[in-house]
Amino acid sequence: MSKKSPVAGFVVGPQTAQMLKLGHPWVIADRFTRQWPLGKVGDLVPLTDEGGRLLATALLDPGDRIVARVLQSGSMTLSEGWVRRKIEAAVALREAHLELTDTDAYRLVNGEGDGLPGLTVDRYGEYLMVQLYAAGWKRHLPLVVGALQKVLEPAGIYEKFRPQKTRKLEAEVKSKKYSRLLAGSPVAGPINVVENGLNFLVDLEEGLNTGLFLDQRSNRRDLMRRVRGKKVLNLFAYTGAFSVAAAAAGAEKVTSVDASATYLDRARENFSLNRLNPKRHEFVVGDCFEVLQDLQAQGRSFDIILMDPPSFSTTSKSRFTTRGGTSDLVATALKLLPPGGLVITSSNHQKIDIADYLKELRRGALEAGCPQRVIRIAGQPEDFPFPVTFPEGRYLKYVISVRG
Description:
- This protein is α/β, with parallel strands linked by helices.
- It is built from 10 helices and 23 strands.
C-alpha cells in the first residue's frame, strides 16, 4: 500500500520556505496557503517555493492552523516500509540512550523528534498507545499499525483520541472511553506498568489520559534523591506518581492535593501497589490555592513543595493558567516553606519558553518577599527528542529552587 504526491501547486511564501530549508517541520496557515489547490485531509503534497523548486513532501491538513507537516525533504512515497524505517530508528535511539532495566513505560515515537510529525506512540508494558495530533494521519493509520506490529509485535495497539475541547467534553460526554483498539487483544481494566522500579496503574481505555505522564520520569527519579526524611507537599497530584516516588524514597510524609477525588483514589491504589501504606500519608481533595491557604492558617510547613499543574484547568470555584497563575501559586506556596526549603515547579505549556517561565517564578518570589535561587532546570527525558531546528519540541520546564 502506498500513496504518491497527487497534486502540484502547494507554494509556500519566502519566510516559510526559509524555515523549511532550515529544517522546521510545520507550515502555518497564511496568505500563501490560502491560495493552495483544494485538497483532502491526509493528502501527501509537494511543497514548492515561488520559483517552483521542490522543498519537501508533507501531510495536508487544510482545516488546521498547521496546514501541512513535513515528512521528508524532496519527494517521497508514504508506505508501510517508510513508516517502519522511522519506527526502527526510534527504537534504536531509545535502546542506545535510555536506561530501561527498571522501566517498561516510555515514549517510543515522539512526533517531530522521530520524523513522524503529529504522531506519538507510547509503550505501556506489552501494549502500545498511538495518539494523533494531526488529522492527516487518520487515513494512514493502517500503515502505522502494520509497521508497529512488524517491528514490535505488541499484545495490542490502542489509539487515544485527542479532543480539542477537553473540558467541555468531560462535562458533557457520559462515556469516559477516549480510546479504541486498533489491533491485538484488549486489556481487561487498568494494567500495571513499571517506572524507575515503581509500579503504577494505567488505563488504556478510559479517560483523556492514561494516568501516568511519561515525560516526568527522569524528574521523578531526581526527586527521589532529595526527599529522605522530608515533608513533601505535592500540588495538582493527579494519580500520585510524584507522591509515590517521594514516599518510596523515604519521605517522612507526603501530602497530595488534587481537585479530583477520583484521581486521588487512584493515587492511593498506586501507594498500595508499591507496599506503601496510604494511611501514613495525606490526601486532600480541593482547589490547590484554597488548600494552600488552609494549610497556612493551620501553621503547617513543608520541606519540599512540588507543583505540576496543567497548562490550563478549571474547577467549580477557580481557574488556573500558566501565565499569571504560576506566580500566584509560587507566592502562596513559599509561605509554607522554611529557609532552605525546595520549591519545584513544572509546566508543559509549549507557548511559554524557559525565560518567560522564570519571570513567572521571579514575580512569585517578589510577591512573597522570599528570595529564590535556582539550582536545577530540566525538561523531558531522552525518549522525548526534538530536532534542534524545532524549538517548539522543548516544551517541558522543570525548575528546582531554594527558598532564601
